[in-house]
Amino acid sequence: MDSVVGSLNKTLISLFSEISLDVSLLFLVAVIIPGIVIFLIMTVNAIVAVYMERKVSAFMQDRLGPMEVGIFGFKGGKKFWGGIGQTIADAIKLLVKEDIIPKDANKFLMVLAPFIIFIGAFVTFIGVPFSNGLVISDFNIGILYVIAMSSVGVIGIILAGWASNNKWSLYGAMRAAAQIISYEIPIGLSLLLIVIVVGSLEMSAIVNWQAENRWFIIHSPFALLGFLIYFISGVAETNRVPFDIPEAESELVAGWMTEYSGFRWALFFLSEYTNMLIVCIIASIVFLGGWLSPFQLFDIPGIEIPESFFVLDGFYMGMFWLLLKTVLLIFVMMWIRWTFPRLRVDQLMYLCWKVFIPFALANLVFVCIWELLF
Amino acid sequence: MGIDNLKDTGSIKADEMVLNMGPQHPSTHGVLRLKIHTDGEIVSKIEPIIGYLHRCFEKHCENLSYEQIIPFVDRCDYLASMHMDHAYSMTVEKLLDIELPERVEYIRVIISELQRIASHLVAIGTFGLDVGAITPFTWTIRDRERVLDLFEALCGARLLYNYIWPGGVSHDLSPKFIQRTIEFLDYFDKQYDEYNELLTGNPIFVERTADVGVIPADVAVNQGVTGPSLRGSGVAYDLRKTEPYSIYEKFEFDVPVGEGKMGTVGDCWDRYSVRMLEMRESIKIIRQAMSSIPDGDVHSAMPKRIRPKKGSVYSRYESARGDVGFYIISDGKNIPLRVKMRSPAFCNLSALSEISEGWMISDVITILGSLDIVLGEIDR
Amino acid sequence: MQINDIFKHLQKIDPGIVLEEDTAYLYIDPSKWEEISKELASNKDLFFDYLMCITSYDLGSGKLGLAYNLYSNTIKHSVEIKIEFDQIVEIPSVASIWKTADWHEREAYDMMGVIFTGHPDMKRILLSDDWEGYPLRKDYKEPDYYRGVPVPKDKTAWE
After folding, report:
1. Given an 8 Å threshold on Cβ–Cβ distance, is C73 in contact with B347?
2. I want to staple C57 with a disulfide (CB 3.0 to 4.6 A). Which of A45, B161, B338, C156 is the partner?
3. Inter-chain contact B59–C53, Cβ cutoff 8 Å?
4. Do residue B204 and residue A251 have CB atoms under 8 angstroms apart?
5. Between residues A251 and A327, which one has the greater pLDDT?
6. Least CB-CB distance to B337: which of C51, C57, C102?
7. ipTM of this complex prediction, to 2 decimal places
8. Residue C109 lies inside a defined structural domain of this protein
9. Model-level pTM?
């Protein structure tokens, strides 16, 4: 399948073919444009997701949430779109805030850390498709690449915790390292299950397999279990309640982010919400049929789907379906966050090493047997 | 030589790290400072350092007349001001030998039990915050607001009431108070079940609190732990039952004690559940008191001026946090010679270092939350 | 047990113990306190397992006092014991018997300057470690300066 960089490059070459420009220069432009688009996606995602989180939490806690700040004089008041400009105002506030670096902190590493975390989240997007063919680069090792890149952030977290020269930050960083590295394993194992069935690491191949057969969430009970393990581990990987142990507010103040403020802290925030988006997009692509329309689920022999329903498939509707599934999963994450208390460090490790990993391993075997039998 | 050293110790020991928790920290419930010696995540020694909110309450009392002390008493335990008022007024009445009208006693009981509900709601909500659940806090605060509304209608203040005075109360009940209180209780009964659904049986909550920070009954008594924290350890010591003051002997209610339903008797979950059950009992008491409240004048027994005889008196009162005691020495003047307040949270906190050793940092927060301390009362 | 019975019981240890008419407390001598506290806590007929409060007070003219309020959870009776003594006299600590006493004794030391012997950690609790004097004593003079900052002495606003 074509990827965006390739097709963009071709378009540019054909556009500028009259002017004699260096082709390698055009390739650079073809790389920069998707980069800007990714950054915009990250920013918009953070702004929308924060707004959504605040409204969802307000709804669950019997409050109103933000309701004062509007855009262009448009205020929602007590309606659910009230305070729609709040997160934009927050973002502006964060950017103009004073940047504080503690006296005894390691200045170089402390400045470096947010960028490493940010880059970890940024480059992951290269392999994440948004619709059929809408991907910067559709590697043949797509899933492997996404898993690998999403754990780059750990280095930044450890750097941030250590460089701040603060005991709370150090505790947070150590907890984060242990947690994120541990939860990589169940995530990897539950995705491996899909890879075994499909026989490819390519994202588009996985969706195509689901188009031809059925979605993985209803593929077999083991795949459903795999989905649950993946999703819960994904919540842990993004450091959200009930696994927000590295930044446990009531224990470690703000964990590894304690000494950060302003722009650097905004980068952390951005990366956090981006990771959330990535986890949810991967979950919808791998388990929930990606850009396939949910009407495919009713493709039972004997019942004919009206021809007009196929309008719902295609490139643009695919984007819609993928985003819808993603937003639903993000909502579930928020739902979990505002309902559950936090686990303790040892309980978190127990859950990972003694529950998830054995189950995921057993899952692998059973899925193989299932595939052989049916 | 290095090998010899290892043999001597038997195991490799890392250096201890001293962690200063507070006075500015999200979950020390005020300006408490904990000096925590940690070995990794495990707490090996913990030293509470208090006094950051010391406002010289006892020194003030030596310069103020008995009436003027009441607002200061309010500010000691700002989450249960009515209890402080009541405890102090009871002590002064004991010193003056005043017989109170029936109606005053009924009003005081109703108000105190409403205050107990309000205070326990905060305790439960902040305990939820301490273990990481944010939603219970907003829910409990929402319902506490209703109690504060009732108090506002009663005496104009929402937090520091100055309502219960020696010999009576400052105002009679407001016209619709009883009706509004009944409405609140009917509403609260439903909310109560919601809290149970959200926290009590929540597996993660149980995992975090059961078996954590166990206070054995004998240690609790020896440390002077009182109130719900003591009853969580299975000791049925409630002054309303064991030494009934005011008119508590007229009402039927139970004293809930920790039974170790989810873990061991005296763990954090038991302390939490005792608070939950106590709210039920408070509702019972309020309903009984409302149905039989007599008419009368609430100011009739109030002394024109308070000038007790020479002597000293110690009286106890069951507040939301435990056993509040006031020791007042009078030398015959209109200002006391000495007022000493036995603050329950002060004694409860002194048990922290003993029970939290060997637990993790997260558990220290849980234990601290389950003790339900108010720094205004500890530091006075 | 009533106060009279407790009085008679304790007279066996210390004949100098005083029970005043119409009052509910016993006066004892500071030198006998160690013995009596052990008896109060361990004797099966008394068994005061809960120390409710330690109140320190200043009677003026260099006389200090301590009031111990005790309660028994098993027998359900209470007693108040008073010790009155000169400022320089040291009082045996009861922190090893009732752990509540630990912080209460530190508070008495902090506020009233009562010195307890045998206390595990005798230091100030509510005030800062470098505070001078004992604020609740009647002869306490407010300092003119605290760490170089003048202390306001004008009290017309609140008197």
Report:
1. no
2. B338
3. no
4. no
5. A327
6. C57
7. 0.86
8. yes
9. 0.86
